[in-house]
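Give me the fold.
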Amino acid sequence: MSPRPDIRLSHQLHELTDAASTLVRSEIRLARAELGDGLRAARRGAVDIVVGVLLLLVGLVAAAGAGVAALSLVWPVWLAALAVGGGLLVFGLLFVWFGAGRLARIPPRRTVDEAAATVDMIQTAYRNHTHSEESP
């Protein structure tokens, strides 16, 4: 004698909710790990960037001074300084603008992919379950 259909259904629903709960917890752990890895890498990268920017700034000041000195042979000093400073401002603003755009497009790719796969799996299991109930 086989178990009653409502007991089997109850057991299957319980297993499905347990599996879904386990998957959600796993997705949360993956997201936390991915975020933690990303933050550690971002912190190391930020320190490297700050040191690099400081060195570049010192070099840029020296190069700008040399540029102003060279242009002042042909132009008045104020015009040479204005041309060099204006050019540096334009390039600096362009770099900041493009960099901010790139930073805005950093999604946690693995987590998004795993979450989408989990949703697909749950939807498929639900569809299969509802179809198995409809057939004798």
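The CA atoms of residues 46 and 52 lie 10 Å apart.
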